[in-house]
Amino acid sequence: MALRTIREMGDPVLEKKAKTIKEVTPRIRALAQDMLETMYDSGGVGLAAPQVGILKRLVVIDITEERNEPLTMLNPEILEQDGVQTGYEGCLSVPQKVGIVTRPNRVVVRYRDLEMNEWEMEAEEFLARAICHELDHLDGHLYVEKVEGGLRDASELEEEQEKEQDQEEEHSGAE
Ligand code: ZN
Question: Is 115 a catalytic residue?
Answer without folding.
Answer: no
